[in-house]
Amino acid sequence: MAFDPTGPYNELASLPPTADLQTKPILKECISASRALAELKGAGDRIPNQRILINSIPLQEGRLSSEIENIVTTDDKLFKAAVSKDAPVDPQTKEVLRYRTALKRGYDVLAKRPLSTNLLIGVCSALLDTPVEIRKIPGTRISNPATGEVLYTPPVGEPLIRDKLANLEEFIHIDNGLDPLIRMAVIHYQFEAIHPFHDGNGRTGRILNILYLVQEGLLRLPVLYLSRYIIMHKTEYYQLLRAVTEDKAWEDWILYMLAAIEETARWTCQKVLAIRSLLDSTVEFCREKLRGNVYSKELVELIFFQPYCKIAYVVQAGIAERKTASAYLRELEKAGVLESAKVGRERIYVNPKLLDLLKG
Prior knowledge:
CATH topology of the largest domain: Fic-like fold
Number of strands: 5
CATH superfamily of the largest domain: Fido-like domain
Order of helices and strands: HHHHHEEHHHHHHHEHHEEH
Number of domains: 2
Strand order of the largest sheet: 3-5-4
Distance between the termini: 48 Å
Number of helices: 15
Radius of gyration: 22 Å
CATH class of the largest domain: Mainly Alpha
Largest sheet: 3 strands, antiparallel
Structural class: mainly alpha
CATH architecture of the largest domain: Orthogonal Bundle
């Protein structure tokens, strides 16, 4: 029987799929993607203060992941809103900021217990800033925003959805001999096909990707710009998802996801190494140019915590009291390391080189 996108896909098959998921092309691409991830993991270990990566990179991933759902903001609005309570924040920027909150919440929970349906409910609740539940009533459909054509109708009925999530959870944790990266591609498809929530499924599914890689030890930190690749190949992403549903075309889908992992891991690795290089050169510059009572490695690392800094951050870090902290930031501005701007009622200091690096 032909697939009907307008009817609930209650026939969504349980995992693991019956198809051959370890074809020669897939295994070959697995090797390359795994190597790229290992390089990224190693690059992250070279950053002395891991908070630098955890705070800056997820904001960029959040912006890109949200852009896939047509939630668009700018880097400038995003970083300003992240640092200043007084900054005017539009709804789109608020949604992107919540992505970082949701990712961090999931990452923190993962340190205590493994991936689960409840963890994903918590992630989606943080994304939407409201408690979410598994869908109980029908009516959820995925449509072409331009034409209104229904492209997919996910399974309906809370008991059925919970059964499929339980099967997904089992697949995540049982060692079935599949390479973890192949399993990630399968997990991502299955979560998107189940579509368990009324909203936020796409972003929750992309956070699931990152958390799974962390759980499997392939990443130490949740720093992978996977959404960048999806945006660049957005039409293919949706076409391949649909091809799995309609034709069980698993190989093409898995190869797409492996290519996404490899390319974005290499790109993110370059980004991380560039941050490290800029940090080192800034430390050296400040050591040579600033007066001894101004320079400290802790202060330089703080201005890399994210591209915008403010006096309160210096105080909270225990580096200086408020008056002295203000003087330190002004000295960094005079030296050309920072640039200041008034946002609302407070003055913030931007690290322009870091901001440009993250934008690029």
